[in-house]
From TrEMBL:
It holds the Pfam family DUF5717_N. This is DUF5717 family protein. Transmembrane segments: none annotated. Residues 1-881, 884-1190 form the DUF5717 domain.
Amino acid sequence: MKERINRLAKGIIDSDLPKMIWTPDVIEDTVRVGTTVKREIFIGSENGLNVKGFVYSSNIRVRIPNDNNTFGGLRNHIVYEVDTSFLSAGDEIEGSFYLVTNCGEKEIPYLFHVDLATSGRILGNLNTAKDFLEVAEHDMDTALRLLEYQDFTEAPFMQDMHTRALYDSLKGHGSRQNFMEEFLVALGVKKPIRLMVEEDKKVYDNPGRRLEDFIVIRSDTWGYIYLEASADGDFIHLPKKSATQADFQDGTLRLPFNILSERLHVGKNYGAILIKTARGITKIPVEATVNSSRDAERAVFREEMREYLELRLEYESGMYEDALILNQMQKELDLMKMTSEQLLLSLLQAEIYVLTGRQDKACLILDEVRDSVLTKRLEQKELYCFYQYLQVKIWNDKEQKDSLIRLLQKYCSEEDRYRNDFILYLMLLKVNEELFENPVTVLISMEQEFKDGCHSPFLYVECLKLLEKEPGFLKNMARFELYALYFGAKRGMVSRDLALAAAKALNGAKGFKEIYLKLLCRLYEMYPEQELLSSVCSMMIKGNCRGSRCFEWYDKAIKASVSLTRLYEYFLYSLPEDYGKLLPREVLLYFSYSTELDAHSRCVLYSNILAYTQRDSDIYRLYERAIEQFALEQLFAGRINSRLAVIYKHMIYKELIDPQLARALPAVLKSNRITCRDAAMRYVVVRHGELMTEDAYPLQDGTAYVPLFSERDIILFQDSFGNRYLNIRYEKVSAMEAVDELLECCFEVYPDHPVLFVNACYEAMEKEELNGDNAALLELADQKMKLHPLFRSRLMSAIVRYYKKLADESGDGNRNSSVSYLLCLDKDALTRDERSGVCETLIRQNYYTEAYEMICRYGIEGIQIKRLLKLCTKMVLQNLFDEDDRLLHLAYVVFLEEKSDSVILDYLCEHFNGTVDQMYRVLMQGIKEHVETYDLEERLVAQMLFTGCTEKMDRVFELYASRKKTSENVVKAYFTVKSIEYFLYNKTTEDKVFAYLEAAVNNSVEKDKVPDIYLLALTRYYSTLPALQDDQLKLCQAVIDVLIEAGMIFAYFKDLAKFIVIPGNILDKEIIEYHGNKEIRPYLRLRILPEEEEYHYEDMRPVYKGIYIREKVLFEGEIMEYQILEDENGERKTVEEGSISCKEVTTRTLGNRFACLNEMSLSLELKNEAALREQMEEYLKKDAAVSALFTLQ
């Protein structure tokens, strides 16, 4: 700028100005929210001349970094930054770049749309949960990616507290498909998927070698599905054991399975296919029947044989009359003989005859089957032995008997005998009575048979018979004796004495076995005596048996006055929930002296006492102190159940609550019993929406006690894989009732309890208007609590509204110390409206520095202009008018809104730079308001000179010259520009400009050293005057002489001929003068009428800065028509045309010969012969004088 002014001051006119090009012409772009992006403007020169200047931005969010807003050169890249910090999607940054250059001022408008990233734009359209549902329904992959996107919580519909709590609870737990399904269902925009099996049961009759079939499963809606299939039954094969929603076609899944016929047995085969989902297990029974007539007959025979053996066993036990049992045995045998003709049946018939004393009939049968038995004696040795056994029973032959005993002993001693050969051992016991002479040996042999796999009831019966005779054997009771006794007890085959002996033996047993307890219970059922009852309870205590099924035994023992160590403890351990009455007095008295109970038992005991005794009873007084201490212990441990609830209800009262108790008590008071019947669920998870925390409680037997402090708490269930579910059926029952008073007391005593504190904040925020206490509570929560961002945002909004209301009530300018909270507030976490509210409140309370810092960080969006006016004024004064770019921008914003005061105007006048129009507006307003304008006039004149924007320069220069100390160079440059405008561009100019030029030329001794433009402008000005004074005539003559000598001749010279002497060779000719471009050569076409009809080209001579002339002699009556052409885009186009005729010029110079010729021509036309003669004589005299004076060589 300084260089250009210096050149102008010297009268140097740049023949050419740079031709600036720039890109882009208009800027419109989309930028991501919360970022600072860099872009650039290109400014170049089209004609090889350097472009110089400054760039200004009208919006503070679009700035040139490092204050590097100057440029110069042929190619300039101006880097700028767009700051979208703390803006929201949908905002716009609008303004312009102003280029102030040596070739003029240009404006580049810009508009930046603030938006999220590509995925963010999708998020921005999710205004409701249904919008997200539509995305998931049409493009699940995109929806899943969005769900896991870090900015998903910025979606509009996610700004709801409940929605965010659901999202936070599910995120990061289990599969993302399950996350999506549960989230949409919980929001209420999607129905949960329900799977339906078309067939309740699959039944197959005689399936083929390998049967293939399907289970058809239908879903009633779209969404995430995962199921697992398993088979219960080895004849069912599942080729596919899992499926997802991708396996469903049009909502239907055909799950294949095979029936493996090779694994089917004859008759009915039962199995099932189990379909397991997160919602439970569906069982589809499968039944396959394999039928054949032979198999059916065998099945009937087996059933009839079983009935026969049952009767035979009863016969052996001797519990019933022999005749009755034998009669029933005969009937069953007859039924078997109707469908079968086996050899065994004949032998069994013979045995019945023997048992009923009909040996003759038995002999006949044996004779009939003798040959068959002997033939098969090796293959069916048990039938052969049975045949010989019957012979011995009939004939009682000693040799035959001894032979049979040896044979049986041989077979029983073989190592490879079959398991079914135990019947041979039983026959041996029947035949060889001598064995029982040594019962120990018999028992040992029986035990060996048992170990070898013989669990026949007939063996147990023989053992019982032996034990009845020898009860002492029970001292060393082994598994065989136990099983035999248990079998006998079930069948009523054990005598009282044997039962007591068995109980006595078991009392001395080491350790606990389930078979011991089962045997004792059976024995007591047979003989309900105290000794046996004592044995039962003793064994249960030994086995640590608890629970409701054990309670009845302990209860019986206490009622029967059984004396047994730890009986009362196990009575208490097993006490059922629905006991419903006071414990026996002896139990209560016993425990009043015993302190070895575990917490559960004490809970049971104390809750029973509190529920069924009066406070004035002796029992209550015995336990009161212990119950109170126990209640406190459990409270501090945070435990709760139905019994503890009874204890707390009776023992916890307001006066007992201290800070330590108040810390633990609320969670207990607000506990709820959650019962979930879904076996797959392992935990109950509770999410407190206002906090960043959640708690998980394990489900024990489908039940958990969880504290729920409000209806806003989210309840979820979690399986063993970490998946979480919201759509699970459960039951919820409050553990304690009427706890509000205690909760209030807890909060009073310990106000730092997180959830109570948050609930109090929530209630305060629900009020239409906060009071001071409410605001203090919310401030404390913000400072101390780890709150959820959304809740914190709501909380801070409420606080900001409160202080804004407080500022409204107190009025501007009154500092309120309570605003200190706003000063330390994390304003980054606020919304724009909240930040603007805080900023305005700080301004109103005179916290100007803090408010200004907020504006510097967050911008001025949303702040009222009157607040900005106050802040700007105070900050300017506070900074003692020191220059600050942001403050200067703020001041100009206020100025544009026509709200500025004298301080702001003063500040702008001192420091503001912008476009000519902007600076001019500031100057005029400053003068109007009578503020100090500093050097603004000089800066503005200089910028006008630099840019060429001189429309308002005269007014500004007038103010500059009249009000300020002027710069010589600026003044000279100003008059140079005015001379240029006047001479080159024919702009009207005030007379004072020419007065200055006149003085400048007069004061110059060497007129040829004066800038040409001064001389040209001044002489042209003289040509327009009606008359010149003497000094002006003298000055004009001198200047014209200099110009003519320099070869500069212009058409207006003829107008000066009336004042000064102009050479004849100039006056004799008409002059065509064209103001064009130095770089573009003009072409002149002319013709002189009436002689010439066609145009012809003639050259034009350049005389000054793109001004061209053509001199031509015209005689009276001639008209010269001309056209001036220039090349444009390869074609010559006419840029100017006109005509000139011969004119008589008023001149102080004596007439010349051309003038005489013109006068003679005119007299001839007028037929004035006298004048013509006179003029002809004058012309001859002058021609002769010229010939005499100037001899031509």
